C-alpha cells in the first residue's frame, strides 16, 4: 500500500527532498540559511482557494474544538532566497487550506488529493516556496538549549491532546506563529512572546534576544505546505532556572503536557530519531532538529 510518506516523496523529491534518517522518511524538507528577513508583499492579497474538502475540514475542527477562534496571522506569499514575503491571512483560512491538505493526505494514503492538486495549480507548480491560493501561515520553531552537567540539551514538548492541530505530537519548544508587527524584528518578537507563554521566561530575561538568536534555516512541512523559520537559542543558567517549573510540571504550559531534554551529542541526536519516528513528532520539529544537526557539522 502507498503511504503518505511515499506519496510526498513522489511529489516533492525533485524540488524539496524530504528529510531521511536511518532509511525513514520524514514529511519535511529543509533549506539551511544563516539569516532570514521578513517583508510584506505589495498589492492585494491573493485569493484563498478553499476546496469542498477544506470547508468540510474546517467545519469538523470547529465542531470538535468550539473554543477555536479566527485570529489574524501572516502567511507566505513567496520565498526568495533568505527573504520571506508575507501577507495577512487568518487562522480559519489556514485550517481550511493547509491543515486540510494534511488531513486529506492522511485520509487517502496517497490516493486522489484534489485539494493538493488545487494548491499546486494556484501556486504555479511551486507550492513549497509560493503560497498563492492558501493561507500558509509562517511559523517559528525554537531549538531552545539548556546547560547540562556535560554540555547542552535542547527542549521538546508533547503537545496537549486538547489542541486542534498536532495533538499528542512532540515538538520543539517554544513555537508559534510569526508576529504580526511589521516594524519589529518579527522572529525575535515571536520568540520572546512564546518563551513567556509556553516556558514562563519573562520579557526582562529575554531583553537581548535578537542578538542571541541563531537562524538555522527554513523547514517546509510537506503535509501542510507551510514554512517554519527555525532558530536556535541558548539559555543561560539563570534563564534555565526560570524554565524548571514548567519542565517539572509545577507550572502548567498551555501548549505542552510534558517536556523532555535531548542531549546535543551524537548519541543524543541518534536517540531522538530512533525514539521519534514520523507520526510521533511534528514535521516542523523534525526539520528543526535536522537543521540543528547541519549547523553542528564542521563547515
Overview of the molecule:
The chain folds into two domains: 119 residues, no CATH class; 158 residues, Nucleoside Triphosphate Pyrophosphohydrolase (Alpha-Beta Complex). With 299 residues, it is of the alpha+beta class. A hairpin with a 4-residue loop joins β11 and β12. It is globular, with a radius of gyration of 18 Å. Strands 3, 7, 8, 9, 10, 11, 12 and 13 form an eight-stranded mixed β-sheet that branches.
CATH homologous superfamily classification of the largest domain: Nucleoside Triphosphate Pyrophosphohydrolase
- Report the radius of gyration as a whole number of Å: 18 Å
Low-pLDDT ranges: none
List the domain count as a whole number. 2
CATH fold type of the largest domain: Nucleoside Triphosphate Pyrophosphohydrolase
Which percent range fits the helix content? 25-40%
Average pLDDT: 90
CATH class of the largest domain: Alpha Beta
Amino acid at each position: 500500500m502507498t503511504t503518505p510518506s511515499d506519496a510526498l516523496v513522489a511529489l516533492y523529491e525533485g524540488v524539496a527532498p524530504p528529510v531521511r534518517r536511518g532509511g525513514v522518511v520524514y514529511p519535511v524538507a529543509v533549506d539551511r540559511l544563516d539569516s532570514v528577513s521578513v517583508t510584506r508583499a505589495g498589492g492585494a492579497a491573493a485569493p484563498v482557494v478553499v476546496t469542498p474538502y477544506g470547508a468540510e475540514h474546517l467545519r469538523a475542527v470547529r465542531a470538535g474544538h468550539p473554543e477555536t477562534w479566527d485570529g489574524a496571522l501572516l502567511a507566505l506569499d513567496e520565498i526568495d532566497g533568505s527573504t520571506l514575503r508575507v501577507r495577512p491571512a487568518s487562522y480559519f483560512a489556514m485550517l481550511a487550506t493547509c491543515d486540510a491538505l494534511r488531513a486529506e493526505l492522511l485520509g487517502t494514503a496517497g490516493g486522489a488529493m484534489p485539494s493538493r492538486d488545487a494548491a499546486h495549480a494556484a501556486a504555479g507548480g511551486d507550492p513549497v516556496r509560493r503560497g498563492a491560493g492558501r493561507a500558509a501561515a509562517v511559523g517559528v520553531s525554537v531549538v531552545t538549549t539548556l546547560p547540562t552537567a556535560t554540555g547542552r540539551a535542547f527542549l521538546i514538548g508533547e503537545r496537549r491532546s486538547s489542541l486542534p492541530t498536532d495533538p499528542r505530537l512532540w515538538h520543539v519548544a517554544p513555537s508559534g506563529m510569526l508576529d504580526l508587527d511589521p516594524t519589529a524584528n518579527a522572529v525575535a518578537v515571536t520568540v520572546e512572546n512564546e518563551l513567556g507563554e509556553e516556558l514562563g521566561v519573562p520579557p526582562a530575561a529575554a531583553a537581548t534576544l535578537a542578538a542571541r538568536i541563531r537562524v538555522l534555516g527554513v523547514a517546509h512541512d510537506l503535509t501542510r505546505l507551510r514554512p517554519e523559520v527555525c532558530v536556535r537559542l541558548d539559555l543561560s543558567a539563570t534563564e534555565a532556572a526560570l524554565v524548571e517549573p514548567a519542565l517539572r510540571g509545577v507550572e502548567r504550559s498551555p501548549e505542552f503536557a510534558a517536556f523532555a531534554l535531548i542531549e546535543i551529542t551524537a548519541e543524543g541526536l541518534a536517540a531522538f530519531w530512533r525514539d521519534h519516528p514520523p507520526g510521533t513528532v511534528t514535521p516542523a520539529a523534525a526539520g528543526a532538529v535536522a537543521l540543528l544537526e547541519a549547523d553542528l557539522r564542521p563547515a
